[in-house]
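Subject: design request, 249 residues
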């Protein structure tokens, strides 16, 4: 997969892994569009990278996903890469009942429903390109979950399964399906939960994820397990119960 000369949509591209990918793709000579819910974050990103295009969009809402697709189709007819990166992470205690689940952001809507719907919207367009790609950002926690974040981990496991399935469906087309599997990354994803748990290690810099991703794209490495995520992926195959108990002590 070539890593320059593409037109790329990155969801959640204003911060964290998404912004690191945005920077890396811009540096390689790509036309990059990013979307996110927070206009001020998009403005910050554009102030650093004036050449990017931005769009405010709450991907948890079906009408906004549709509006994003229509805007892209009208303004960027040569789009050939979709990066499903946007995600949120919450600690949820199910012993507290439905209110604990409901009183917060919609992890399933943003982490799972949005990538599935955007893929369905964009695949017919991507099929028209000579070379195109879908890049789904999952997580090492999709292979071995941390129990205090049950919904987040479940959505990432679903993204892994979804990536396998659509990669098979699209195997004889121009679309390549990549899955980025990061370890813990030092971003605002957890909204301070690591500090609450007294966690000293905040993870690797998001730039490391971007570097590994572009390298893997060039080599057509479809599952991109980075750092400690490689151990979780292998542990899920070889000794899942021991690894699960180890990270959930």
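Subject: RE: design request

Done. Sequence follows.
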């Amino acid at each position: 997969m070539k890593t320059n000369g593409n037109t790329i949509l990155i969801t959640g591209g204003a911060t964290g892994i998404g912004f690191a990918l945005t920077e890396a793709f811009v540096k390689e000579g790509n036309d990059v569009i990013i979307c996110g819910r927070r206009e001020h974050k998009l403005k910050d990103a554009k102030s650093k990278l004036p050449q990017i295009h931005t769009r405010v969009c709450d991907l948890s809402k079906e009408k906004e996903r549709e509006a994003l697709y229509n805007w892209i189709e009208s303004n960027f007819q040569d789009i050939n890469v979709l990066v499903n990166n946007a995600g949120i992470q919450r600690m949820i205690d199910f012993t507290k009942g439905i209110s604990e689940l409901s009183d917060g952001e919609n992890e399933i809507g943003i982490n799972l429903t949005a990538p599935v719907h955007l893929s369905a919207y964009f695949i017919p367009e991507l099929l028209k390109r000579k070379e195109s790609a879908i890049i789904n950002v999952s997580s090492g926690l999709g292979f071995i979950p941390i129990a205090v974040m049950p919904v987040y981990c479940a959505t990432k496991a679903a993204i892994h399964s979804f990536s396998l399935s659509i990669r098979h469906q699209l195997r004889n087309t121009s679309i390549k399906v990549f899955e980025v599997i990061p370890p813990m990354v030092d971003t605002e994803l957890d909204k301070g939960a690591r500090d609450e748990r007294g966690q000293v290690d905040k993870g690797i810099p998001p730039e490391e994820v971007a570097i590994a991703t572009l390298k893997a794209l060039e080599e057509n490495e479809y599952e991109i397990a980075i750092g400690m995520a490689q151990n979780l992926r292998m542990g899920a195959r070889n000794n899942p119960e021991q690894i699960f108990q180890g990270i959930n002590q």
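Strands lie at 7-11, 31-36, 53-56, 81-84, 132-137, 175-181, 223-225.
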